[in-house]
Specification:
alpha/beta, Rossmann fold, six-stranded parallel beta sheet, 14 helices, about 30% helix, elongated, binds 3-phosphoglyceric acid
């Protein structure tokens, strides 16, 4: 049975040493954090633990692979966002934490993926991490789909709790999954059809309609025999679904230039020439999608409608983002979607914005997430 960190009384946490799994894998450009939504979402748990007098070693990763990437360039900025003095602990000083705790109650171990044992869910590594700690807390929803040592194996060696963010994420995503299908719309965009196909399949009987935009629509066009030119496409994933619940774009914005400098041309859905790229949905599609969205009671949206980081191709995403605001239960997620709604100043306009990319999709696909399972979420 999952236990949340509000269960122990504050006095029980006082003076305790806690290993806290966080997800600070945020976009960084020229040494600056460009999106801090995910960090702020975990602040409540950090504040709760520090406020109760606990000493906390945070553990987080950077990047998708095992790498030497370090939190060092952003450690000060991280501390400012969290409103805490933060000390970075290199892996070589992991056994010095007791000494370091004397100077600061909040420490951050450097990128856990510097050690390849992390991604192998190595039990020996988990034991090393757990050494000397009283409790383990996980608030890193975005990494719950990973079978990694600091997410899964560690729970064997310490009494384990979930943080406040895990509670909010699972409650909101579960509500969205279980909301009546009749007035529920799923909107999917972005790339990586392989991560979205299982969600589409799970929602065929859980949603009224599934609106498809972004690069994943290219896979559907290709399956219909339409030439998508030089557009982004995941040719390894086989589309094995057909349903009249799936609504595809009826017009598109195309260009031969991804930078947006040569503008974009409105185009019907038909063969495009080999040097052209589909970079946004067209106006008719955006209007049609927005009408469907406005009538729904629940909308779940993951993935922009086009290359929304470039203004020339951001209009479809903007219109969808505005329509989703009007929906009673709006659940939005995915890194590129969050960047897009943040740019539009709409980050606070939805019922719930998920910090999870892959984790949100796997949850919505109905899969058991290893990190949640290790915490006892599934009973
Ligand atoms: C994310 O960005 O979705 C999380 O940080 C998990 O990252 P991962 O896909 O590299 O495990």
């Amino acid at each position: 049975m999952i236990k949340y960190i509000n269960e122990p009384k504050k006095e029980e946490l006082d003076g305790k040493k806690i290993l806290l799994r966080v997800d600070f894998d945020v976009p960084i450009i020229a040494g600056k954090i460009t999106e801090d939504f995910r960090i702020k979402a975990q602040k409540e748990t950090i504040d709760h633990l520090i406020g109760a007098g606990a000493r906390v070693l945070m553990v987080g990763h950077l990047g998708h692979e095992v790498s030497d990437a370090s939190f060092y360039p952003i450690i000060e900025e991280l501390g400012e966002i969290l409103g805490q003095t933060l000390t970075l602990v290199p892996h070589s000083e992991l056994n010095e934490v007791n000494k370091l705790f004397k100077a600061s109650p909040l420490l951050l171990l450097d990128n856990i993926r510097q050690d390849s044992r992390e991604v192998n869910n190595d039990e020996g590594f988990a034991r090393e991490l757990a050494e000397g700690f009283d409790y383990y807390v996980n608030d890193a929803f975005a990494v719950m789909h990973r079978n990694h040592a600091s997410v899964v194996a560690i729970t064997k060696y310490l009494p384990s709790y979930a943080g406040f963010l895990i509670k909010k994420e699972t409650e909101n995503l579960l509500q969205a999954l279980e909301a009546p299908a009749g007035d529920k719309i799923l909107v999917l965009g972005g790339a990586k059809i392989s991560t979205k196909l299982p969600v589409i399949k799970n929602f065929l009987d859980k949603a009224e309609k599934i609106l498809i935009g972004g690069a994943i629509a290219n896979n559907f066009f290709k399956a219909q025999g339409i030439n998508v030119g030089a557009s982004l496409i995941d040719s390894e994933t086989i589309l094995d679904i057909k349903s009249d619940k799936l609504i595809l774009p009826e017009d598109l914005m195309i260009s031969d230039d991804r930078t947006g400098q040569s503008g974009a041309e409105l185009y019907p859905v038909k063969d495009i020439v080999s040097n052209q790229l589909i970079l946004d949905i067209g106006q008719e599609t955006a209007k049609h999608f927005a009408e469907i969205i406005r009538e729904a009671k629940t909308v779940i949206w993951n993935g922009p409608m086009g290359l929304s980081e470039i203004d020339t191709f951001a209009e479809g995403t903007r219109l969808i983002a505005k329509a989703v605001v009007s929906v009673g239960r709006s659940i939005v997620g995915g890194g590129d979607t969050i960047a897009a709604i943040d740019k539009l100043g709409l980050l606070d306009s939805y019922k719930f914005v998920s910090t999870g990319g892959g984790a949100m999709l796997e949850f919505l696909a109905g899969n058991k997430l290893p990190g949640l399972e290790a915490l006892g979420y599934y009973g």
